[in-house]
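Collaborator request, handled under Task 6.
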Amino acid sequence: MKVQPTIQNPNLTRLLFSLFLLFSLQSFADTTCGDIEGFEFTNGHESVAVKDGSTYAIDELPGHFYVNAHISGKVGSVKFIVDNLDTGKHYSIIENIPPFTFPAGNGDWNLGKGRFKVTATLYKYKLGIGKCSTKTITFTLGDVNCQADAGSLMADADMVTLIDGKATISAS
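Structure tokens returned to the collaborator:
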């Protein structure tokens, strides 16, 4: 007579104990995490620090720029949420490889001009696991308004005559 091997299912208690042990060991692991020190517009060679609430002329920023998060400490990934406050469009990425940038992989800024809110959240592990800290800034990209005073004009005459659909006025 042949002995038939029996298939044994893992004991549920052992399986649950193993899972508990696995997760509890990770809870005693290194819990230090990084912090966001600031943001910059950069192309890897030139950079301009981003100040919350400031306005920047795109033609005065480095060519082919992107937003870089300055990180200190241990970080596995950074999630960027960028909101265009003028159009209401919402963009979200998780960057797993340093430097942590938006767009990911040091790609060129492709959102154009407007008012933007950038929220960066640091995670201890890759793929956005183990939240550490969050920082939000707002800025405007576009033409910086001219602050020059154009003065005022005073008309030289009280009345103007329309001739052949045209009028000429003079002022001082």
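The cover message to the collaborator said: "The chain has a mean pLDDT of 83. The longest helix spans residues 12-27. Please let us know whether this matches your experimental observations."
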